Amino acid sequence: MNIIPLFVAIPLGAAFILALLGKKETVSDILVNSAALCLAILSIVLIPFLRDNGVFVYTMGRWLPPKGINLVLDGLSLLMLIVINSIAFFATLYSVSYMKRFTAKSRFYSLFMLMVAGMNGVVLTGDFFNLFVFLEIASIASYALVAFGVEAEELEAAFKYMVMSSIASILILFSVGLLYGLTGSLNMADISEIIQGKHNLLLSFSLVLFLAGFGLKAAIIPFHAWLPDAHPSAPAPISAMLSGVLIKALGVYTIMRVFFNVYGMNIQLGWTFMILGVISMVGGGILALRQTDFKRLLAYSSISQIGYILIGLGCGNYWGLLGALFHLFNHATFKALLFLNSGAVEYTTGTRKLDEMGGLSKVMPVTGTTSTIGSLSISGIPPFNGFWSKLFIIIGLIQAGYLVLAGITVLASVLTLAYYLRVQRFVFFGKLREKWAQIKEVPKVMCVSMIALAIICIGTGILFYPLIKVILGPAIAVLQEGTKYSLLILGGMK
Prior knowledge:
This protein is mostly helical.
């Protein structure tokens, strides 16, 4: 149980020390990668402990919930911790060489660790006030990281992101205030217990505010306007974190926790999720098809892929939830890989324009091969991991009788394949242009991150059953238990 606060303490401590290191780049590289690796290992170490004990509740200062501050580790929290900290390690490893082009590397790492601390806090906290605090820590750090290059494009994108995200934060804070006024509590489990069976206008209004606020954080259409500018402008490791992890930790996870475990899901919410999911899935795919900027195409693709997760959550049966959570895990992997690929291409060529590239796999074989694996994975081609998560979502929709939605999901996957084949054709295949003939593969440490993520895409596609059994199963159980969450947290403590 004492491991739980380390997920916040380690990155906060690392962020403080890194901010003091100044120009000591080697020390900064070692410290940030050691901290990230430690967090990734700790998240995996917790798997057998959670399996044997169910739910861990860590109380600050021995003040028991609902009065005190508590951190909660259950199957859903653990899944998110594994995703956040594993991708963070690969991003920091990649940054060792990639961030040499920027000044103030230690400050970059400090902000990075601050963002990781915020995300870990969001998925562990058991009360709404600290959810908001950790949400803001992660968000503010991400604003600065998007603007880290301090070029006009980065500053404009960061400002737009900050304005839109601040609106989301206001909506969330206002909703938290409404809940506190109605219940006199900020503890999620306690609020869930109090509001069950109650129906009033303010409670419904708070639910709508949460949906809009977390929808903005998750970049669901029509709340997506900030994402296509912010993600391409950021340095590649941050783009990988934003699309791969941040929109899920601050958006999708909070939607799952609040609507499944606090309010409780119903048929109206299920349909709302599925409608928003279809709009995001199809709209994001069509917008991605039109892009000529490599990273901007990947950003619109993220909007589309979040749509799959929402459809699975809205479907609500076992297969739908399994597909949604598996796709959340998969998308973090292959989208992080693809953004690192795009960063490698920009690192060597200095451009993100698809029509200026061509034949790069001849001079960048590692980047080209791993990008192909990532593209096939996200397009749902067997035996890669993306195939199974999309298949489970489709099975869930068919089982629930939503045949039209199942058909749209299949067509959206074909659309995804279309624009990723276009990326492969324009960037890596075809004739190598003369001006790129002398370029070389990116440094080995960057290649290691891309290769590791590509192996995960293949490995979790082949060995998906153990992953479902060990990691995804407990997370699905949390969603299926719904508002019984309050009994698990408060049952033995009142």
